[in-house]
Amino acid sequence: MSQSETKEKKGFSRRKFLVRSAVGVGVLFGAGYLSRPLWRRSLAGFANSVDAFYSGDTETPPLWFEILADNTITLLSPKVEMGQGTFTSLAQMAADELEVDINQLKVVHAPTSSGNIDGFSTGGSTSVASLWVPLRELAATMREMLKNEAAKMLGTEVSALTLQNGVISGNGKSLTYGEIAKDVESWEIPDVPPLKDRSAYKYIGQPVPRVDLRDKVIGAPIFGMDAQMPDMLYGSVVRPHLIGATFVSADTSAAENMPGVVKVVVEEDFVGVVAESYQQAENAKQAIKVTWETEKNWQLADIEAMVEVGKGDPVTIQKAGSPGSILSEADVITAEYRSPIGAHAQIEPNGAVAFVDSDRATVMISTQVVSITRKEVADRLGLDVEQVDIRPTYLGGGFGRRLHTPNAVQVALLSRAVGKPVKCFFNRKEEFQNDTFRPPTHNVLKARMDENGLIQAMEHNISSGDVMFGSALIPGIAGTLLGADVGAWRGGMIQYGKIPNYQAISWRVKLPFATSWWRSLGLLANTFAIESFMDELAIKAGKDPVQFRLDQIQDDEAGHRLREVIRAAADKAGWRDGVHNGRAMGFAASTDANTPCAHVVEVSVEGDQIKVHKVTCAIDPGLAVNPDQVRAQCEGSIIMGQSAVLYEKMTVEDGELRPVIYGPYRMALMRDAPKEIDVVILENADAPGAVGEPPMGPIGAAIANAVFRLTNKRLREMPLTL
Amino acid sequence: MQVSFNINGTPQRVEVEEHTPLLWVIRDILDLKGTKFGCGKAACGACTIHVDGEAVRSCSFPVQFAEGKNITTIEGLGTGDALHPVQQAWIEEVVPQCGYCQPGFMMATAAMLEKIPNPTDEDIDNNIVNVCRCATYYRMRKAIHRAAEIKSANL
């Protein structure tokens, strides 16, 4: 369905069956699947015919499914689709328990008015894992409810019914789910039935094509940028080009009379313009002269001087044994690594379409934080959250950039000022200069090995700008509770449990520009550091780097799973150390969000160019709901990681973040991508785990380790440069 | 000014300010949303269309140069309900992730295949220079080779 068609559905004549529940799914930090008794009560109360797109009451439980008369079922996803394939996995999970053909299911983004809002976000590689149990339980319960009603209608016992593709048969007759639902007056809510065994899955575990594949191949208008409303105008907001700039005042006189300008809008913290076309709004914006206040004319050297282990406040995030005393002895090996400021550079700019009409606001937007955006709009407009409907769209890339989308507030204010719908989005320069960047890092590692080449003690110090702290997602109190920035130290813990003494220490740097979540958070830089260092140690110890790692992994379940991916990657790649025919292999591994992943890369160096020819990846995400999309995520994560490791770098000059355009912000292109990517999927856990980010961990070190074999140069700074 | 052209086989005449990038005429006036805005500086390729069969980055193509031309966008790449071989190959290889840049890549690929029906990897590297942040390049390369096969089999 196109965005323009997602308008009010009030007055639909067909009758609908709704399953509603109060299941909480904001489980990033393990809040879990809550309140089943409450959910059952809610189902009982709301298994009635209600308009799908109107609910304005937070007391009502969320809407998950809608059965339509044509026997198709709409699944209102509380998670957004940003390329990670979540919609497809959710459809597979629901279809198996509902016993429908997957093509009967349509997955859509739940508007906030449906109530099915993820309280937290879509991010952290948690979508499928967090909905694995609740979604299947909801679907199974709905199936049983339909069977109970069908038995009555068909005049037979539930046990005598057969189900296929959403058709229930018994007593010589058949009814579709749609036919059953339309005639039910009140529903019996059964206990949650047992979920199916793996052997009974039809879709889960299969390489089902993406449910959004066709729309994305024909250019369907599914993104925030494509959204529109009737009688819509175009807005443009003046965004600061200087670091740390705050809005003081604006001279808008020249803009007021420019062609097409409807209104120049000056708010306390920004100035924008609304015009009849995008071009007119952009042109008028250029004519507005804004006075900014800045603290300092920042240069890159200022930033680099701040990001330094030893500066700021340390927090020990992991400790075993007595690493301190051993690392004060002789023969300690030390190395330090750095990573630069990284831009998200997602291709779809941030933006929204908003309409504020007296006491209601509607916003169509690409966002990973639906409920936070709703609250931000409501707070600024002085509305209750129930008066604000956020309609999420497909995202033209997320990568963490849309974990804070306060631009929705600006668009809503522009709309309120003109009383019409307004569409407003960033231009590319504004994207690059107002990003929430991947913070620069400095990692210092120390270790001491015994005479057998086993690590006796190891220490990892991480200095990083904020990732989680200061984010709209996390309340201010979290810093006090957690002590250190979980996002910054993601991937920073030492995972070789046989090392008797180790510690990891996080140092917080407060930078003058926004830094935040960037796909895999600290994993990219931290694993680059740790796994490069492990390679340095293996070479010092005169050992094969694969065996060197296997020797130091503990014997618990996590250790077993990590060892298995290491062995699988090495076997599949035909791992051998050294240079052969001008190419060398590089190895690295890490575990992220309980998903272990290992890469073997095959690299050559021509002049000063590092060329990645082949990547063999072994990953264990537990149960792979869609093995083809697990592969796709590995492929994308590997190349995006390679891009960050080899090419990408933002700099700071004269108070500005630069560059401001693709090209100068060099990213991986077709010519840079490995010609071969071989993904081995292991499934050494029963439930699905993280997929989208873990493969980004080992890529940097694997490449750097290969380059060392070819050149004898140890590259310890991203982007890797010869 | 008035500008007339054919787009996806249909004649159109638009009243628009001179120098307006063709992208915005296509998206906002003609309401064809498959052609995407990425950078506005011809640096990413998300807005790639065909003008008289040539791949063009429409964000930087002033509308007046479209006068009398035949324009094709992703919506008109296939024939009727039949998908173009490039689109078929994209489906077979399950290429898109977020999908935002994909129309631009498909348009660039379709134009290349008209000139180079059986591209080598090097041809692909030299001609397909759009940006995909999901980094679907590995599957795109496979899909481009596959599209060449489908296209030659159809001849």
From TrEMBL, chain A:
Keywords: Membrane, Transmembrane, Transmembrane helix
GO molecular function, one term: oxidoreductase activity
InterPro entries for this protein: Ald_Oxase/Xan_DH_a/b, AldOxase/xan_DH_MoCoBD1, AldOxase/xan_DH_MoCoBD2, AldOxase/xan_DH_Mopterin-bd_sf, N-heterocyclic_Hydroxylase, OxRdtase_Mopterin-bd_su_IorB, TAT_signal, TAT_signal_bac_arc
Residue ranges annotated for the Aldehyde oxidase/xanthine dehydrogenase a/b hammerhead domain, each copy included: 218-296
PANTHER family in the cross-refs: ALDEHYDE DEHYDROGENASE (PTHR47495)
NCBIfam families from the UniProt entry: TAT_signal_seq
Name the UniProt record assigns to this protein: Xanthine dehydrogenase
From TrEMBL, chain B:
Name this polypeptide is given: (2Fe-2S)-binding protein
Transmembrane segments: none
Keyword entries, A-Z: 2Fe-2S, Iron, Iron-sulfur, Metal-binding, Oxidoreductase
Domain 2Fe-2S ferredoxin-type: 1-77
Top-level taxonomic group: Bacteria
InterPro entries hit by this protein: 2Fe-2S-bd, 2Fe-2S-bd_dom_sf, 2Fe-2S_ferredoxin-like_sf, 2Fe-2S_ferredoxin-type, 2Fe2S_fd_BS, Beta-grasp_dom_sf, Diverse_Oxidoreductases
GO MF annotation, one: 2 iron, 2 sulfur cluster binding
Gene3D superfamilies noted in UniProt: 3.10.20.30, [2Fe-2S]-binding domain
Species of origin: Flavilitoribacter nigricans (strain ATCC 23147 / DSM 23189 / NBRC 102662 / NCIMB 1420 / SS-2) (Lewinella nigricans)
Keyword S-adenosyl-L-methionine: no
Record has Phosphoprotein as a keyword: no
Xref: SUPFAM superfamilies: 2Fe-2S ferredoxin-like, CO dehydrogenase ISP C-domain like
